[in-house]
Design a protein that fits this description.
alpha/beta; elongated; Rossmann fold; 4-stranded antiparallel β-sheet; 3 domains; Isoleucyl-tRNA Synthetase, Domain 1; 4-stranded parallel β-sheet; about 500 residues
Length: about 500
């Protein structure tokens, strides 16, 4: 099945046909770095990291660009409120953002340009717009004239008459049309020197929209393949990007527009009565969530919804995904136990183990594994449906567990069956890695390390001694208290295993 993608510009699914295959250019609108990142800032980077991983699997050579907006009115206001400078605030918040996406396993970004470092490119783009008759300068400000762009509104399907509610607050009386937007804003007397840049129109700073147009064309060219961002950016940001970019270059801008759904806080699932808890959840930063839940769980949570749909965020949803992720971890542990080696440390390339496995005597099982694999790729080829692909992996996990039981591998079993079970587990792990999951073993005890492991050994031994002495109430108390603390014990013939849930 060939890859099909939903294009916001045409409002339909289309075959994915890059402009210059095998090269693919992706531009994703990054954060405005004035406040610490929240869970919503993680959605785009994770989704487009998966998209790049899958395109690379398909054989494409992908350049992935994510910008940093460090020149914006919001930074001026926030820096003043904090008693700091715009550059210091931007650097601190950018570091927080980069730390967050790194912990989420987002490592495929090739270029991260900052608006402050591309003022020259921005000025040149504005000069082109003025020369082409699409922009005009008034007293140090420069505006884009939307009446000159005949197909303005083609992304959002808005007409010029709808623009009255989107007037610029500063200098709006200078505009020719209510919908005209700022390309360059002149410096005001009370603004700090660190947000003043030289230009042909005097000291000032760029508008938000023109920053992305200048940076995307600098690294991907006037025309490129994929432009992405949250659905809230369709208008006015992405609409204005198209207008100014195509008016400046005379060429089509981005061929495909991908928009991810927004994060919604489902307070009904968070708490029935505790409003303070609901408010606290809304204010959680990405760093706090990562400290509490870890990067892999949050990543799995985000890809468990098809990217164009809204993401329901609540403790209930997180707990459900945590249980689902634990099923994968348990299979990896079980396979290592019965097969004698870890799939995490296997150097084999994707699919190698499964292609060499002695599957002929386990034809039904092999057929099921291949079926789930096909479902994974069919889902990904259908507009990067990560939710459907993740479901296929989950069902493959269930089938592998059943095979281990059918072949009685916990008690021994044949070497051929063990090799096949291991190869199937590795095949499933390889699929998960296309989603950026299972790249390394999860930290036991939530990162508690060696000390926690030793403590658990003491508690498990104490429980075993209590059971041997027929002090079952004490043994049950240890088990129940550990469970309440998020630790599950699993009694097996060869000893007791523990894991953090």
């Amino acid at each position: 099945m060939s890859l099909r993608v939903y294009n916001t510009l045409t409002q339909k699914k289309e075959p994915f046909e890059p402009l210059n295959p095998p090269k693919v250019g992706i531009y994703l609108c990054g954060p405005t770095v004035y406040k610490p990142s929240h869970i919503g800032h993680a959605v785009g980077p994770v989704i487009f990291d998966v998209i790049k991983r899958y395109l690379v699997h398909k054989g494409y050579e992908v350049t992935f660009v994510v910008n940093i907006t460090d020149v914006d009115d919001k930074l001026i206001v926030e820096a003043e409120a904090q008693g700091t400078t715009v550059p210091e605030l931007a650097e601190r918040v950018t570091a927080n953002y980069l730390n967050g996406i790194n912990r989420l396993g987002v490592d495929s970004i090739d270029i991260m340009p900052k608006a402050s470092e591309h003022i020259g490119d921005i000025v040149k783009t504005i000069e082109k717009l003025i020369a082409n008759g699409y922009a005009y300068a008034v007293d140090g400000d420069v505006y884009f004239d939307v009446s000159k762009d005949e197909d303005y509104g083609k992304l959002s399907n808005r007409k010029l008459d709808d623009q009255n509610t989107h007037r610029e607050v500063v200098g709006e009386e200078q505009k020719r049309n209510p919908g005209d937007f700022a390309l360059w804003k002149s410096s005001k007397p009370d603004e700090p020197a660190d947000v003043r840049y030289d230009s042909p129109w005097g000291s000032g700073r760029p508008g938000w929209h023109i920053e992305c147009s200048a940076m995307s064309s600098r690294y991907l060219g006037d025309s490129f393949d994929i432009h992405g961002g949250g659905i809230d950016l369709i208008f006015p940001h992405h609409e204005n990007e198209i207008a100014q970019s195509e008016s400046a270059s005379g060429k089509p801008f981005a061929k495909y527009w991908f928009h991810n759904g927004l994060t919604r806080f489902n307070t009904k699932k968070v708490s029935k009565s505790d409003t303070s808890m609901q408010e606290a959840l809304k204010k959680m930063t990405l760093s706090t969530l990562l400290d509490e839940h870890g990067g892999e769980l949050l990543r799995y949570f985000l890809i468990s919804t098809q990217y164009r749909r809204p993401i329901e965020f609540s403790d209930t949803e997180l707990e459900a995904k945590k249980k689902g992720l634990s099923n994968f971890y348990r299979l990896f542990e079980r396979t290592e136990r019965v097969c004698g080696k870890s799939a995490y440390t296997d150097p084999a390339v994707r699919g190698e183990e499964w292609s060499k496995a002695p599957k002929s005597e386990f034809a039904d099982f092999a057929k099921d594994v291949d079926h789930h694999t096909e479902r994974f790729f069919a889902a990904m080829d259908d507009d990067f449906n990560t939710a459907g692909a993740a479901a296929a992996c989950y069902e493959m996990t269930t089938r592998i567990n059943r095979f281990i039981e059918e072949q009685n591998l916990e008690a021994g079993g044949s070497e051929a069956a063990k090799t096949t079970a291991y190869a199937a587990t590795r095949a499933m792990m390889d699929l998960g890695r296309m989603h950026g999951l299972f790249m390394k073993p999860p930290e036991k005890a939530g990162g508690g390390g060696e000390a926690v492991g030793k403590l658990m050994t003491v508690l498990i031994d104490a429980r075993a001694m209590a059971k041997k002495a027929k002090q079952f109430e004490i043994a049950d108390h240890i088990r129940d208290e550990l469970k309440a603390a998020g630790v599950t014990l699993e009694d097996r013939p060869d000893g007791t295993l523990w894991r953090m849930e």
